[in-house]
Design brief:
The complex is a heterotrimer. By secondary structure, chain A is an alpha/beta fold. Chain A has 2 domains: about 200 residues, Rossmann fold; about 110 residues, Rossmann fold (3-Layer(aba) Sandwich), CATH 3.40.50.920. In chain A, the strands form 3 sheets. Chain A has a 7-stranded mixed β-sheet, with helices on both faces. In chain A, strand 11, helix 9 and strand 12 form a beta-alpha-beta unit. The longest helix of chain A has 21 residues. Chain B has 10 helices and 7 strands. Chain B has a 7-stranded mixed β-sheet with strand order 2-1-3-4-6-5-7, with helices on both faces. In chain B, helix 8 links the parallel strand 5 and strand 6. The longest helix of chain B has 19 residues. In chain B, about 55% of the residues are buried. Chain C is built from 6 helices and 6 strands. In chain C, strands 2-3-1-4-5-6 form a 6-stranded mixed β-sheet, sandwiched between helices. The chains are: A alpha/beta, B alpha/beta, C alpha/beta. At the A-B interface, helix 3, helix 4 and strand 9 of A face strand 1, strand 2, helix 3 and helix 5 of B. Strand 9 of chain A pairs parallel with strand 2 of chain B, so a sheet runs across the interface.
């Protein structure tokens, strides 16, 4: 199939449909509105379900219901709306239901602004809701990758029975780039024996989708199993992209769209004879600690660049363990860093500042 | 030879109910379960338990069940029914769950005329958390958070859900019943069965509000509770159909 | 190797987003790598709007245009905002019908295009965006004008098919004006 030019938000929606997503529940919030709009048009065409819910809270609980009944289901929102969904996400994680949640991040805190930001890194990777749980967090840097990761996200969600978050930013959502869907037909879904959709086979126990465990021993066991699952995800699912790191003296750490700007900066640096590479985590959780740890043994310094006050920075520092300096350059409030600014920071670092 | 005059419905498990002595949740559970069994829908039923005294309902109803976050059962039911229209989906919610934290969800499920059934148990108090004021607590009623009696100046007036939802254009069938005596138990069963039948017939959103007792938190004996319900709750919450599109 | 980075700006309703989009479509149609990044938000509703377009033979590194090969500015606020974004030696296409002031830069090429007047001559002032698109492509020559028309046809669909000749004419007039001024 030929490449088509699509807005990130629309590509995300179409990718989901092509991955067999049968239900979408959302609520309007900029800059992700094209996702529910697109879904409202497309879902009826594929015998799926679209609801503009009364709130983000309701939307995520509709996801809980549809996922619990065994369907591939997605919701999307932007930062303040994702905050509202956290309760439901925690329940979904505990009840071990698969679903995909898209966050097209805008700047915060509070109502913030509608321009791109990466301020939800902590919320996405360190819990967000209450209790001990994780989401698989995928951070696309292009429209093509956004489509790919949404489709992979559904598979990962089913494989591990856990919610997957696709963390884009306003730029990813709004920009148009060519896309080719790697999957055009929904795959055959794995059998979901645990789904609560009618107890027809009496030879098996009835299905109960639940996150309430009053007895300490049982609740502890539930947590132990979750931990076991998360360890498995950490072992199997780390994704990272390295750009010109082989001979690099300096490495820029960046995720999502900012990694593309970082690549530009790396190219510019090399024109000036400074060997710079880029490490771009594709999975923000599980985080590619090993890649950074290895790089720390080879480079003179790292520069972490984010559209926030320094959130992924903490994971980079954790990976590097103080072996090389890790500088930080961040922009907030919807301001996008420029290659020239990043280059300046690299030069500063080279000069030992 | 012995003749069976009463048999417990198979729609209830053998797990002993945790409800307090004299609480009418048990009766309401039985009515819901019998209705589903009599309609032959046990294999298709998916129930949603609330947060509140009914929180363990997933242990008792012998069908596929989901446990929802506080107040969100109608949203969960919506999600299930939309992807599984052949299922018989019901929520079982109390007054804190449905009439306080979950008002948005129930109103909009009704507005969309979602084709599921809600059993709304109103006992005018938060039972599970220890007797706090509910949105349905009567004016003057003493609870642990209205120790001087519900003050309508500062704590507002009771919310009449059956009347309120009757004003929602989308809703199909709303009735309020009680279980304080045999005649009303029979009426309640009839209403619940009708609410399920509506769903089977694809009619849409049906809700039965059932007045219920809470002897423990009302500080009354089971028998006194029955009288209290009759004398105090029914005047505030009159019984009867508030909306029935099928009868129009 | 070719990489063109363009900013297209104006007030809402001038079709600057569409002009940029058509350029991106045309680039894609000719097998190039493209990206189109719009400004979004309140400015969409009556204020200034702009988009960044990148058309390249290689993978598009950043969709954000900071040093533009060309800025197309359709009104005065847009010129004030984006004149400085043009890289030295780059091109500024300004709608001289709506911008009375002169650019401050002397290290860039400037084309003053009466885009509104030319569009009116073509049949509708609404086609001013196509005039400047024609101007731009005559200068940069990154796609075939025929490809642009083909993409327009696709985008507009059956319902607006009758507007194609008008738009085609506007593009031609833009091309002609660019060639005239550059000769």
């Amino acid at each position: 199939m030929a490449k088509v030019l699509m807005k990130g938000n629309e590509a995300i929606a179409e990718a989901a449909i092509k991955a067999g997503c049968k239900a979408f529940f959302g609520y309007p919030i900029t800059p992700q509105n094209q996702i529910p709009e697109y879904m409202s048009r497309r879902m009826p065409q594929v015998d799926g379900s679209f609801i503009q819910a009364e709130s983000e809270v309701a939307a995520i609980n509709m996801v809980y219901g549809a996922a619990g009944a065994g369907a591939r289901v997605m919701t999307s929102s932007s930062s303040p709306g994702i905050s509202l969904k956290q309760e439901g996400i925690s329940y979904i994680a505990c009840a071990e239901l698969p679903c995909v949640i898209v966050n097209i991040v805008r700047s915060g805190p509070g109502l913030g602004g509608i321009l791109p930001s990466q301020g939800d890194y902590f919320q996405a990777t360190k819990g967000g809701g209450h209790g001990d749980y994780h989401l698989i967090v995928l951070a696309p840097s292009s429209v093509q990758e956004a489509a790919d990761l949404v489709q992979d996200g559904f598979d990962l969600a089913d494989k591990y029975r856990m919610p997957v978050m696709v963390l884009g930013d306003g730029m990813i959502g709004q920009m148009m780039e060519p896309v080719e869907f790697k999957r055009n037909e929904p795959p055959k879904l794995p059998e979901k024996e645990w789904a609560a959709n009618g107890w027809s086979d009496k030879s098996k126990p009835r299905s109960v989708v639940n996150s309430l465990y009053i007895e300490a021993e049982i609740c502890s066991e539930v947590n132990r199993k979750l931990k076991e699952k998360y360890d498995e995800v950490i072992k199997n699912e780390v994704r990272v992209q390295e750009y010109m790191t082989d001979d690099a003296d300096y490495v820029i750490a960046a995720f999502g769209t900012i990694a593309r700007i970082a690549k530009n900066a790396a190219n510019k640096a090399r024109e000036q004879g400074i060997k710079v590479g880029v490490i771009r985590p594709v999975t923000l959780w599980p985080f590619p600690y090993d890649t950074f740890a290895k790089a720390a043994g080879k480079v003179k310094g790292m520069l972490d660049v984010e559209m926030n006050q320094g959130q992924m920075l903490e994971d980079v520092q954790l990976a590097v363990q103080g072996r090389v300096p890790v500088n930080f350059f961040g922009t907030q409030g919807g301001v996008i860093p420029t290659p020239a600014q990043i280059l300046d920071e690299i030069i500063k670092m080279k000069e030992g500042k | 030879m012995a003749k069976t005059v009463f048999k417990k419905t198979e729609m209830l498990t053998d797990v002993p109910l945790h409800y307090c002595p004299g609480c009418t949740h048990g009766i309401i559970h039985r009515l819901v379960a019998e209705s589903i069994e009599e309609l032959g829908m046990q294999d298709k039923a998916v129930g949603i338990a609330p947060v509140g005294c009914g929180v363990f309902a997933y242990k008792y109803f012998n069908c596929d069940m989901m446990e929802a976050a506080h107040g969100r059962a109608p949203a969960v039911a919506t999600g299930i029914k939309r992807v599984c229209p052949e299922c018989l989906v019901f929520t079982y919610q109390g007054d804190g769950d449905l009439a306080s934290i979950g008002t948005a969800e129930i109103v909009h499920a009704a507005a969309r005329n979602e084709n599921f059934t809600t059993i709304f148990v109103n006992n005018a108090i938060y039972g599970m958390t220890g007797g706090q004021m509910a949105p349905t607590t009567l004016v003057g009623q003493v609870t642990t958070t209205s120790p001087y009696g519900r003050n309508e100046q500062t704590q507002g007036q009771p919310v009449n859900i059956a009347e309120m939802l009757a004003t929602v254009n989308g809703a199909y069938y709303i009735e309020r019943t009680s279980v304080h005596d045999v005649a009303n138990v029979i009426k309640t069963k009839k209403a619940i069965k009708k609410a399920f039948q509506n769903q089977i017939d694809g009619k849409g959103f049906s809700l039965v509000e059932v007045l219920s007792t809470c002897p423990t938190n009302w500080g009354l004996s089971p028998l006194e509770s029955i009288d209290w319900l009759k004398e105090n709750m029914i005047p505030q919450y009159p019984l009867g159909v508030t909306k029935d599109k099928g009868a129009e | 190797m070719m990489t063109e980075q363009i900013i297209c700006a104006g007030f809402g309703g001038q079709g600057v987003l569409l002009a940029g989009q058509i350029l991106a479509y045309a680039g894609l149609e000719e097998g190039k790598n493209v990206s189109w990044l719009p400004s979004y938000g309140p400015e969409m509703r009556g204020g200034t709007a702009n988009c960044n377009v990148v058309v390249s033979d290689e993978e598009v590194a950043s969709p954000v245009v900071v040093e533009a090969d060309c800025a197309i500015v359709m009104n005065r606020p847009s010129m004030e905002m984006f004149e400085q974004a043009v890289k030295p030696g780059g091109l500024l296409i300004m709608n001289s019908d709506l911008i009375e002031v002169e650019p401050s830069r002397d290290d860039i090429r400037v084309l003053r295009i009466p885009a509104n007047s030319l569009a009116e001559q073509a049949g509708s002032v609404k086609a001013a965006n196509m005039v400047v698109l024609g101007v731009y492509n005559a200068c940069a020559n990154i796609v075939d004008n025929k490809t642009i028309i083909k993409c327009l046809e696709k985008l507009m669909g059956e319902k607006k098919k009758h507007l194609i000749p008008l738009n085609e004419k506007a593009i031609d007039m833009g091309s002609g004006e660019a060639k005239k001024q550059q000769s």
